[in-house]
Amino acid sequence: MASSSALQFTVRRNPAVLVPPAAPTPRELKRLSDIDDQEGLRFQLPLIHFFRRHDGQDDDPALVIRGAIAAALVHYYPFAGRLRELEGRKLAVDCTGEGVLFVEADSDVRLDQFDAALGPPFPCLDELLFDVPGSSGILDSPLLLFQVTRLACGGFVMAVRIQHTMADGAGIVQLLGAIAELARGAPEPTVWPVWARQLLRAPPLDDDVLLPPRFAHREYDEVMDMNGAIVPFDFMVHRSFFIGRREISAIRSHLPPALRRGATNFEPVYAGPAKGGVGAIPGVASFFIAVRNDMGEEGIAVPVCMPGPTMDKFVEEMGKLTHPTLADTFQTLRSAI
């Protein structure tokens, strides 16, 4: 039984199963980069996605997604392996092809009953992303855990847990994008993965080649234990920012005149699809939820998590972007003339 404020619902889960790649994959040992070795990345990262029911779509989402995961693992086969620790705590993925964990579930709740609870921190995550016993370690554990929960309204929830050493935000988006394409019937992903982590590994030191350290890599220093976590979650603040038509228009007004007319609604906020640059909300591209606010306006809710003082400054800067002053509005109109 899970509860979200006054909301209570039941989730019935099938036993977890391993989903291997749909075809044979290479058996090899792939070392991670020196950046991936740092202690601050050795944790499991949860993600949760909510989907409405689409008319005319009666396929079982759990069955479709499970098949798409197996197909995607043929191309992303390191994710079907297990992490090992080599000399000097060096991380490497053993491409065993064992597979990733998959949980199929059903719930008696409807999507519209969650209401504002769709924004983080999500109080029912443990029910919609079950911590399979023995799966939460970093070494010798599945690198991905999926749970697909069918809802009473015909929608579903797909929750994912991934080891952060294996992928950053952009990598996770690329992997999930490939799974989505294959679930929609594509024969293969549009973007193929590339493993080039050797480019971020320092050359070995031996008698013939001595490379003196040129930088102090503070990211490898010992870190203070914050209640068993690297990130001090007790000091973190979660907020969701609503961005609708008025906010988009306000953000668009900050763009140069040459870009203002041609920019899509997506680009003023996120600075374009994965092409670099800084949008109004840097670092959170692709992580948003389609919602309606209290006045019924359609838009997106962008979840953000950061330390309290940083959040206060972020709120202040967001206010400047989305609620321009009269002087800003006058300058915008003057530039358009």
UniProtKB/TrEMBL annotation:
Regions crossing the membrane: none
GO molecular function, one term: acyltransferase activity, transferring groups other than amino-acyl groups
Superkingdom to which the source organism belongs: Eukaryota
InterPro entries per the UniProt record, alphabetical: CAT-like_dom_sf, Plant_acyltransferase
Keywords: Transferase
UniProt family annotation: Belongs to the plant acyltransferase family.
Protein name from the UniProt record: 10-deacetylbaccatin III 10-O-acetyltransferase
Organism field: Aegilops tauschii (Tausch's goatgrass)
